Structures are given as structure tokens and as C-alpha cells.
DNA sequence: GCGACGCTTCGGCGCCGGCCGAAGCGTTCC
DNA sequence: GGAACGCTTCGGCCGGCGCCGAAGCGTCGC
């Protein structure tokens, strides 16, 4: 039966294109390179080849395909070609695949809970891992934030707290809520969106964290260790 | 240099697992079957084989791999085996891949804008396509909802509107905000999360929409056509 | 100007995975 | 009880893809 011109139509070619995009990620060397770029940085082709443990020729071929499909962008700088994740959509897709990988059944569970990435890392533009989850938990504990499914609502106390910590909350005050990510390593939530990005950027500005040179892992500095304990009540030992 | 026991460690085995999950989606026959299940329904293996245009043996092998990896679950009912998407994470991953596929560069753009799926479909548990986007736009127009990146905030007027339409807003009132999805077919937002689900379920309850028997497409009934015009100011012609 | 470096292109090889025909198992209907 | 149906398992074939050595191009440092 038909309504208003609706017809029964196959979704064939969309599935083919979805398969093509997923297949680009579904090859270990390419996945390594994409995840290496996962924290938003730009890396040269040689370094990506090393990440993936393949030769420059192999890496070059893979990167060409990723670029043609729009998953990465490339900028030439002298003899170097710097690659980066092309869009937030691509980064989100990688996190989504990781979220699925993290909840795979124990029988085939081979997802390596890398202690360093579990402890603190960036999730494209915000903090993730145990640090990200601990900050989220601390904000919930002091009722700065209320979790509701995939949304985190910032309370009036929360705005005051963030402001006293030094974050400019003028934009957050307009819409005191943000997205959360399901953290694949902890299987709990960390803050994403406007609040998550603001916290990440503020931790960098305070030099509480440093970005690892060649990994998504994030280093917590001694200053950061003290600050996390003082401001959030987070002991570094609880992140290990 | 090291801080607090942090060590430089490769992310090798995580990438391998991400590649394995993505590769499961990255094969056209499996992608067809997964997308066929994308609206949350359960389908028997034979029907999935037909969706993917492969024999029962081929479909059986693919489904076994999907089940082993935890992407689908299976329930036996007599001689039939009914498969469904295993979790919200898997559904989100499929949407994330589709979002990337939709924004691929024009040079390799082969994503088929299926008119039926573009018009109205379900996105796992909420409305998507032109209908989903039109409802979102209408709510923004009457200031029932304010968009802020990936978050949609429900205003006081919005709560009143939804309540007068017949939705129980007691839960939404607690946290008047929800997630949005980037609609791959329209490249604009539609409402997901609590509000998106509530709207989808209410449209079903009012019999404004019907689920298509073997597709993610959603049928808009004559009752729905009138209701959409009356309540939301949406003409069916603007959805075609 | 020349050598070194970063990276790309070309061509070839080997392996893996998707396919289906045949056979088999469990369930249902007559 | 036997035929039909839904689906799984087995075995084999074939095409595609990932790999790298060799060669080449553009850039940079001395």
C-alpha cells in the first residue's frame, strides 16, 4: 500500500558506500594511522608509517586512499606532507568504532586496555580515559553537573565552580549542557562538547597536562597532579 | 621524560581491534544486513540474505561473524533465526559511518540519496530524514527548541508545546535538553535522545507514521499528513 | 651543484576472504 | 512418517588487496 507517493525502494547503494568507508578503517595499517591522528594533531607521512609499522610506500598508498575518500586532509610543507583527520565526523566515527570494540563480548575480547591511554588521553578535542571520567565523576559529586543519558547538565553551582576555576563560562551559561562520550576504556562517561573542550583547553593553559609527542596519551604534570587534587579532589593514584 | 609513572606505549593492539570491528562493517553484504537492521527491528536470516542479495550460505557465514563479534544478537524461533542490532553503540557506529559517507568529497560521492529514506526514516530509535529535520526546524522556528552545536535545548515554550501536543514532559522537564544527530541525508540536525525518542513514539501512538515492513523508511499516513500540517506547520510536499 | 631526505609511483607476488554447490541438521506441516 | 523449509557447515575456486623492492620526483642542507 502506498501513501503520498512513497514507494518501497532498496537501500543498496548507501550500504555499499557505508561499506567502503568502513573498509577504509577496517585495515590494521590504516586504523593505526587514523588512531594516531585521533587527538586532532597533524603528523607527517613518515611518522604515520612508523606508527603502522609499514614501509613508506605502503603508508603512502594507504594515505592516498584515505585522502581521496575524505577521511584525512594533507598539507605539504617542504619535503614533508602533514596529514590530519578531515572532520569531526571522522573523529566521531573512530570513537564510535572504539566504543563498539570496547563492549565486544569477552570471548573475543582482545581490546588492549593500554594503561597509558586508559589513564589520560584526548578524545579528538576533549579529555578521555580515567582522567576524563574522574573529572566527570568529581563534577557530579559536587553537583556541578547532572548526567542524563548522553547529556550532561551544568548546574548553577557548576557554573560558579567553573568560573572560580578560571573558565570563561559566558558561552556555557547560555546553554548549560553538553554532550558526553561513552568512554571505551572505562565504559563510563566523560564530558565532550562545549564543557569538555573548555576543561581540556583550560588544563593545557594551566599546564596541568601536556600532549604526548607521538601518541594520544596525555601527560599529567606535577603542577597538574597538585591542581587535580586541590580543585577536583582527584588523587593521581586513583588514575592508575 | 616521565611523569608519575607514565610511559610511552604504542596503541597497536587497540588499532587492530578497531580495524577488525570496522572491517566487519566494511564488506558490502554485511553492511546491507546491518543497515537493514538499523531501525531496531529483528529480521530472519533469509530476509537478510535477500537484503544483501547473497545466498543463505553466504549470509549465514557473515551473520555468524557479526554475532561472534557482538554486533548482532540472535534468537531462535522454530526454524527461524531472528537477528537484531546488539546495542545502541553498534547503531551509533553505523550512523557515524553514514555521517562520514554523507560528507565525502564530491569527487568520490556515490552515496545514493534514496528519496524514500531521505523523506522519512528511523535512526535507530528516533525520526530522521527530511521529516526528522523538518520537525526539528519547526520546533526551532516556534522557539520550542534552541540548537547549540550537538545539543538541543528545550525552552519553557517548548515544554508547553510538547505537553499540549500530548507528550508526557515530566522527564524532559527535569533536563530540558537532548542530543542531536547530524542527518547524513540532509546534512542538518534532527533530534535524538529523550526528546527525539518521545516525538517518534508519540507519532507512532497517534498513527501519524507507520514503520515500513522491510526498510528503515517510515510511511506518513493521511492522519499524519494532516497532523504535521496542523501541529507543526509542515506540508508533506516540502518533504519530497 | 650534489647528495641526502621525504615521499610517491610502478610492478609483481602471495595470501586471504567472499562466493556458492553440495550435503546435513533441526523444525514444521500435511 | 515423510516432504518441505530455514539455515548451517564443508570444501573449493577465484579475485582483490596488502605488501615491498626498485625507481623516480621534489625539497633541503652543505
Kindly name the structural category of chain A: alpha+beta
Task: Provide the spatial order of strands within the biggest beta sheet of chain A.
Answer: 6-7-8-9
What is the number of independent domains of chain A?
2
Residues in helix, % of chain A: 40-55%
Stretches of chain A where pLDDT is under 50 for at least 5 consecutive residues are 1-12, 106-110
Shape of chain A: globular
Q: What's the Cα radius of gyration of chain A?
A: 20 Å
Calculate the terminal CA-CA distance of chain A, rounded to whole Å.
Answer: 60 Å
How much strand of chain A?
Answer: 15-25%
Greatest chain-chain interface? Answer: A-B, 88 and 88 residues
The largest β sheet of chain A comes out as: 4 strands, antiparallel
Assembly classification: homodimer
Number of helices of chain A: 11
Number of strands of chain A: 11
Describe the fold and architecture.
Two copies of one chain form a homodimer. The first copy, chain A, is α+β, with helices and mostly antiparallel strands and 240 residues long. Chain A has two domains: 12-89, Winged helix-like DNA-binding domain superfamily/Winged helix DNA-binding domain (Arc Repressor Mutant, subunit A, Orthogonal Bundle), CATH 1.10.10; 115-239, no CATH class. Helices cover 48% and strands 18% of the residues of chain A. In chain A, the strands form four sheets. In chain A, strands 6-7-8-9 form a four-stranded antiparallel beta sheet. A three-stranded antiparallel beta sheet of chain A has the order 1-3-2. In chain A, α2 (28-36) packs across α3 (45-52) and α3 (45-52) crosses α4. The longest helix of chain A has 15 residues, at 88-102. Chain A is globular and about 55 Å long. Residues 1-12 and 106-110 of chain A have low confidence and may be disordered. Chains A and B meet through α1, α2, α5, α6 and β8 of A and α1, α2, α5, α6 and β8 of B.
